[in-house]
Amino acid sequence: MDTIYELAELSANGALVGLMYSLVALGIVLVFKSSGVANLAQGALAMLGGYLAWAALVSLGAPVWAGIPLVVLLMFFAGRAVERMALRRMIGQPVIMVIMLTLGIEILLRGLAPAIFGSVKKRLDIGIDNAPVILGPVLIDRAYLVSGVVSLALIGLALLFFGTRQGIMLRAVSDDQTASWAVGIRVERAIGISWGLAGIAAGAAGILWGSIQGVDWTLSLLLIKALAVAILGGLDSIVGVLVAGLVLGILENVAPVYLERFGIAGTRDVVASLVILLTVIIRPYGLFGREDIERV
């Protein structure tokens, strides 16, 4: 019976962590859905969101109710700025060069943000109590619970957004940019909006993760988890991101505990890499992604 309770506790906390992974991955999917480009700058954008939240709440002393919305708004414009000043200049260039540019932005921000704000890990308090939530014999980390619920709500809002006029416009651009131009849709504006929304997702994730583990450059390493989630779920599927995040979070939390009992240690950081590798080999379009077959 104790084993069942242990498995339930590990799975519940892992699922909540997975929802936070999904929030980071949401930005990758939003950009890919509109432009067909893999956003490899999402980890650094999450890190930037964490640093901006620390600057607003700690350095400037802003209250949480004002500081967090301000940071989220700034991250929207940060995402738009990345698209406007860097990505838009790459129109007509090979896709691989655009992807390499996003990777370059990731590396630049990873070094620039700590240089500006300081490299020492910073404590970020957003008012979440440290006391666990007790459900019978199962203990749920309160920070994970609050962060997971917030992540789920934001992913739900993203799903609802794609049913609005702006969301339909983004879906049209993702299906066929040329046809979208022909019917009067401003493709650059649509892609810019997707980058802005990716900035919001990254900023919210950076704030939530920063409140749990502190704010420093390591927040940018969320890119690996986000890529694993996006690839497993499907690069063009928001529902896939949600499901894949739950799968990765549970696997990452449960597998190492039981493998260590067989003398296999240090597997937590390997899970995401294995998910990427196996998904690309077995099902490259992911669990819910659209399978596009190109004839050569």
Give an overview of the whole structure.
- There is one protein chain.
- The N and C termini lie far apart (57 Å).
- This protein has 11 helices and 2 strands, in the order H-H-H-H-E-E-H-H-H-H-H-H-H.
- With 296 residues, the protein is mostly helical.
- It has one domain (2-282): ABC transporter involved in vitamin B12 uptake, BtuC.
- 72% of the residues lie in helices and 2% in strands.
CATH uppermost class: Mainly Alpha
Task: Let me know the number of strands.
Answer: 2
Mean pLDDT across all amino acids: 89
Question: N-to-C terminal Cα separation, in Å?
Answer: 57 Å
| Structural class category | mainly alpha
Strand content: under 5%
Could you say how many structural domains there are in total? 1
Fill in the CATH topology. ABC transporter involved in vitamin B12 uptake, BtuC
What ranges have pLDDT less than 50 throughout 5 or more consecutive residues?
A: none
Q: Give the % helix.
A: over 70%
Element-by-element helix/strand order: HHHHEEHHHHHHH
Going by CATH, the architecture would be Orthogonal Bundle
- Rg from alpha-carbon coordinates: 19 Å
The profile of the biggest β sheet is: 2 strands, antiparallel
Question: Please, how many helices?
Answer: 11
Looking across the biggest beta sheet, what order are the strands in?
1-2
Which characteristics define this entry?
296 residues; mainly alpha; 11 helices; globular
